[in-house]
Amino acid sequence: SSTAAVTNLTLRGLGFGVTTVPLLAGGSEEGRYDGALTLQGTVKCRLQGLSIGPVAGHAISLRGASNAGDWIQDCELSHCGAGGLYANGSQNTIISNNYVHDFGLLYPGGIGIEAGSVASLTSHNTVRGGGYTGIIARGQDGVVESNLVFSCMQALNDGGGIYLSLCSNLVVRGNLVRDMTGPVGINHHGIYLDEGAHDSLVTGNVVQGVPWPMMNHMATNNAVVNNVFLVAGDLRLSFFNSTNYTFSKNIVLAAGGVSLDNPGAVGSWSTDLFFSQSGKTNGIPAAAAQGDPGLSDPAGTNFSFAVVSPATGLGILPLEVRGVGYQVPPPIHFRFLTP
Fold this sequence. Notes:
Radius of gyration: 20 Å
Distance between the termini: 42 Å
Strand content: 35-45%
Mean pLDDT: 92
Low-confidence stretches: none
Largest sheet: 12 strands, parallel
Number of strands: 38
Shape: elongated
């Protein structure tokens, strides 16, 4: 029947491209557009090894809570007029080992990956080159881990590499976000917990080369633990209208100044390490430790400690993020030529 679910269907090794969308306003995050491939009412279906692009709208769209247990793996989604992969509303969705790039080319509010809403896993994806945010996660009980996100926020304001809102019990773990290098005046952040994000954990991530590596806005009861935030210039952390935060065992390192907005959102700063090579700080609580963490390779992917470091005395664990992003280049079975 027209309402029966499609179950256990696999699409593998196909190519889609040169699709159009109706001429209408895309709405928030260009969410009104369809995908070149749209799934609705699918259960435990798999999209594997697809090559999608160029397309006028999204590459792939999962439409709503009737989608459950689907798996999108090893795909390349590129040259999208709007977004790459939209799974908002879906349940138990796995988005793994995909390469999403050059999105938001016609409609710059497009997102690289919009994760599923309930108990979803978004892991080992590489997302680059978009006008707005790289990965968005909402809903509950989801995991965003081991992704590489860079060179997003090329056109629009107030977004970031990984963005959370209206969510609970989400885990953002082991990701590398770097080089959000949008135009001057654009507020581009590394990891952004926005309105309604609560009771979630951000841990083991590295945000590199982003002057505003973490923004928290109208968020509460979140924990930010054992991350590294570093930039070659000035660095800013913000907790606007946020409350009851745990910020623990993090390294905050800048060649320029370091500033902190609304430190009162955090109960204790006694296990974090701040270091401004220029010696310029603003808003750093007296309880916070300051000193050079002695990172082995701050410009690379190895954030272990090369020398005796004050970080070890604070219980901060060294990080290494060499395994982020897709692990084997997604197979390209079919490609439409782009001009």
